[in-house]
Design brief:
Layout lengths: L1 H21 L3 E5 L3 E3 L4 E7 L4 E4 L6 E16 L2 E14 L3 E5 L3 E4 L2 E4 L3 E6 L11 H8 E7 L10 E9 L3 E2 L5 E4 L6 E6 L7 E6 L2 E15 L3 E5 L3 E13 L5 E11 L3 E5 L16 E9 L3 E2 L5 E11 L15 E3 L3 E9 L2 E14 L3 E5 L3 E6 L4 E6 L3 E5 L47 H12 L1 H16 L1 H16 L1 H5 L4 H20 L8 H11 L3 H16 L7 H21 L3
Helix pairs in contact: 5-10, 7-9, 7-10, 8-9, 9-10
Length: 591
């Protein structure tokens, strides 16, 4: 009888387990299977039993603008349990066509379940109804992103400025931070962003004749490097917008509805004109702007084998980093060394300003008078649309003392050094000697003798101590690995460490160091990737989720710190965190 009850119990348990397994439901639900390219899609992955290790599909052809949002419902009605768990994503199509949302996976009771693929048809943009009570419509009509260009028809290498402004009407508000979805790469331009210092300032202005508030998100200085029609890619933002509804709360205050909208500044076409060929100087090297030019030396009178410094300097506004300075051509008797470049350039909203200098070290070999011919510098002035040529003043170098060059001496005008024939080449060396005998002293048992004899014995304990420390260090495998990784991290962060006192330069060099490290470690150009892609890539290569998240948070800090006040303590903390993160990634990723 007892055996029969046990058998019935086992049959009941096995039947219940089978029924439970058969009752598991995991499926994909979409808000629509056909939508316009200007619409959004909601995707829900729903299950009726709790699970772990949920993995979404890649959403190829779509951009994730919201999610994942998780919702759980658990209730008991008449003794029957009802459970539902949902992961929700909001997607925006990138292009027209047919796209497949592939399988998502989940683990429930030790088994892996997959959803069925769903095909979505993306069509051309559809007209949206003008419903003034609809929060999406109100948000779209009251927030705009505009790219203003200072000049749409510049010359090659002429500076232009792109200013990105976010216009917000008084009917809506933006209370939380927006997210950059796409950032222009300016592939055909030399570019540099002009970062806003501190918090963004709100201005009052107009957009299409109506009153708006706006903020300047960023300014970018561009120097076109190609002629013809060049396209500036759009800046795309995902912006949370609070729209006031007609509903009221308990206290009579209006209830707001938050809507996430993706807005774009749109493509901007720049028509770049070539520099005119007429009257172009032969020595023109590509300088475009408004410049001054001068040459000066720190002395004009000196002796042979004494050095002087000559500086060639160009100052003004224009493409200072994008052209070469003229070279000097000096007599062969003046030995000339390679110049040292000194750039004092700042980039403002109007372009590059400052100076570039080449400093030459010159050493005369012989006595004489050496005239230096005027040096020419040519540039193109886009304001007058003409070429201009500047000349340096005449310079004369007087070498007052030294060997006189022999008439039989032959020279080559290499600009480097004087080549002298063997005849009389040592004529200037004094050959008359005045030698004196050295006083003889008994070295044996002298003070120096005993010092040299005993000093090596004094170092023996020191050598023994150092040997022990080196042996202990060699046996400390983990410690050596840690020191090696910290050394690697500080190598990449050396430039950032130099700029600890300058917030803007520090965070620029820190962000550059983080990307350079990943480029060297993973052999990829991570500056072209989104932060989500970098985080996914780090985890695929073996980094744990916490370290990858810390790396991404540090990248975000680099961006946010440019627009917010930051203390020296926070800068130092970010530097120390960067050293730790790079060391951890190097430990976790084995290539």
């Amino acid at each position: 009888m007892v055996l029969k009850k046990i058998l019935y119990l086992l049959i009941f348990i096995m039947s219940y387990t089978v029924i439970q397994a058969q009752d598991v439901r995991f499926e994909t639900k979409v808000s629509k299977k056909k939508l316009g390219i200007n619409q959004r899609l909601r995707v829900d992955f729903e299950m009726n039993q709790d699970g772990d290790n949920f993995t979404p599909p890649s959403f190829q052809g779509f951009r994730v603008v919201g999610g994942p949002n998780q919702a759980v419902s658990n209730s008991w009605i008449n003794g029957k349990r009802s459970f539902s768990k949902t992961y929700s994503y909001f997607l925006e199509p990138k292009a027209k066509g047919k796209f497949t949302i592939k399988q998502a996976t989940i683990e429930i009771n030790g088994q892996t379940y997959k959803t069925h693929p769903v095909t979505i048809q993306v069509t051309s943009a559809v007209a949206k109804p003008k419903d003034e009570s609809n929060a999406d419509y109100i948000a779209e009509e009251n927030v705009h992103l505009v790219a203003e260009v200072s000049k749409t028809k510049p010359y090659l290498n002429e500076a232009i400025t792109v200013t990105y402004k976010l216009y917000v009407s008084n009917n809506v508000s933006i209370t939380s931070r927006w997210r950059e979805v796409n950032i222009p790469k300016y592939s055909d331009f030399w570019s540099q962003n002009i970062d806003n210092q501190g918090t963004l300032k709100v201005y009052n202005g107009t957009y299409k004749g109506e009153d708006y508030r706006y903020v300047i998100l960023r300014r970018t200085v561009l120097y076109p490097q190609k002629i013809g029609k060049l396209t500036i890619e759009p800046l795309v933002l995902d912006v949370p917008i609070d729209v006031e509804t007609k509903k009221r709360d308990f206290f009579g205050r209006p209830i707001t509805s938050r809507v996430n909208k993706t807005i774009s500044a749109g493509n901007v076409i720049i028509n770049v004109k070539p520099l005119p060929e007429a009257n172009k100087p032969e020595d023109f090297t590509g300088a475009v702007g408004d410049f001054t030019f001068n040459i000066k030396t720190n002395k004009t009178k000196l002796d042979a084998n004494e050095s002087l410094e000559m500086k060639i300097k160009v100052s003004g506004k224009g493409n200072l980093k994008l052209f070469d300075l003229p070279k000097v051509n000096l007599p062969a008797s003046l030995e000339v060394y390679e110049p040292v470049r000194d750039n004092k350039i700042r980039v403002t909203a109007k372009g590059m300003q400052g100076s570039i200098t080449d400093a030459y070290t010159i050493v005369p070999q012989n006595k004489g008078v050496y005239p230096i011919r005027p040096i020419r510098f040519s540039y193109f002035d886009p304001k007058t649309e003409t070429y201009k040529t500047l000349k340096s003043a005449n310079l004369v170098i007087n070498v007052e003392n030294g060997p006189v060059s022999d008439p039989t001496t032959t020279t080559t005008n290499t600009g480097k050094q004087n080549i002298i024939t063997p005849q009389k080449q040592f004529a200037y060396i004094k050959l008359n000697t005045n030698l004196k005998p050295i006083e003889e002293k008994d070295f044996f048992k002298s003070r120096l003798y005993w010092i040299l004899l005993l000093v090596p014995f004094a170092f023996i304990p020191l050598f023994i101590f150092i040997g022990k420390k080196r042996k202990e260090q060699a046996l400390d495998v983990e410690g050596n690995k840690l020191r090696s990784r910290n050394k690697l991290a500080k190598k990449y962060l050396s430039e950032a460490k130099k700029n600890l006192s300058d917030k803007t330069s520090f965070y620029e060099s820190l962000e550059r160091a983080l990307h350079n490290y990943l480029k060297a470690k993973l052999n990829i150009e991570t500056s072209d990737f989104t932060k989500e892609k970098i985080q996914q890539l780090l985890q695929e290569k073996g980094a744990d989720a916490n370290t990858a998240a810390q790396f991404i948070n540090l990248l975000k800090n680099c961006e946010l710190a440019r627009y917010a006040p930051t203390t020296k303590t926070e800068i130092k903390a970010d530097y120390n965190q960067a050293v730790t993160i790079i060391a951890n990634i190097d430990k976790q990723i084995k290539l």
